[in-house]
Amino acid sequence: MRIRFLQDSDLDGLLALAQAAGVGVTTLSADPQRLAARIAASTQSVEGSPDLADASYFFVLEDETTGTLVGTSGIEAAIGMHDTWYNYRVGLAVHASRELEIYKQLTTLFLNSDLTGASELCSLFLLPDWRKDGNGSLLSRCRFLFMAEFPERFSERVIAEMRGVSDENGRSPFWESLGRHFFKMDFARADFLSYVGDKSFIAELMPSYPIYTCLLSEEAQAAIGEVHPGTRPARKLLEGEGFRYSGYVDIFDAGPSLESPLKDIRAIRDSRLYQALAVNAEPKGGVPWLVSNRKLGSFKCALAQTRPLEDSLPLTAAVLARLDIEDGDVVRAVPLSA
């Protein structure tokens, strides 16, 4: 298995992945034209030197022996630079009266654009049958080796919006208790309009004053800052890399935004350069490592069971082939987990 950039010829396979992802992975909408545009934007970003506001990168996990595409992940270099980026910030309001001996702390939601300009990890999806053998970690963490290699292409602040709570039919309790009252449309429709850039309706219809969460249903309150069951592994992985929830949630499903300074992400901070050393077999005592070929235009990333020897990293012929490199080439690598 290996990571590479998506190409125009991958459109049919990408569409199949988007259809399998369903509601909730907003940036992986099953629209052929929009998916083709995302591939084109990624290609243009790699081939040029775009402003952060215009740059995006779109990766795919591929079984290189069959050409089967099994998962995607992406990075937006800077969000909210062309369209307003909205979140709720979870806050606290205190109401007190000494005369009445009443003291209340009430959770509030403030509409804001505080995350504007941050780089966003997005479009993470892996087919259920392939959620094994470290594939999920490879698909998510590969982005960090790319960012470590080309930090000038990203913001100093990195976020990841986690999919919020919804049922098997795509019903979001938070949306039903709050958003529907103002938008009069289904959660999936509102989420899609926001994704495609039609965000004017948010400013026009969403209340700009604080919302007291005690006025929402208990189910909706419980959903604030929580993730969809299928997203829990992704959240755990990011938290293991140093990401933290800092009180920002999605305005539609209240899923949490996790964030970290770019330089503090574990896989970026701890990654090192090694000289690839061709070996016939995996070294004894080896552990899973994430390895990339350091090439901008033809970036590849794969897992290797190995252990470093000073400045060299033993890699089998199969791994060298996945990375499209030769013995002696310099790679960037980091242990898969801390």
TrEMBL record:
<dbReference type="Pfam" id="PF04958">
    <property type="entry name" value="AstA"/>
</dbReference>
<keyword id="KW-0808">Transferase</keyword>
<dbReference type="InterPro" id="IPR007041">
    <property type="entry name" value="Arg_succinylTrfase_AstA/AruG"/>
</dbReference>
<dbReference type="GO" id="GO:0008791">
    <property type="term" value="F:arginine N-succinyltransferase activity"/>
</dbReference>
<dbReference type="GO" id="GO:0006527">
    <property type="term" value="P:L-arginine catabolic process"/>
</dbReference>
<dbReference type="InterPro" id="IPR016181">
    <property type="entry name" value="Acyl_CoA_acyltransferase"/>
</dbReference>
<dbReference type="InterPro" id="IPR017650">
    <property type="entry name" value="Arginine_N-succinylTrfase"/>
</dbReference>
<keyword id="KW-0056">Arginine metabolism</keyword>
<keyword id="KW-0012">Acyltransferase</keyword>
<protein>
    <submittedName>
        <fullName>Arginine N-succinyltransferase</fullName>
        <ecNumber>2.3.1.109</ecNumber>
    </submittedName>
</protein>
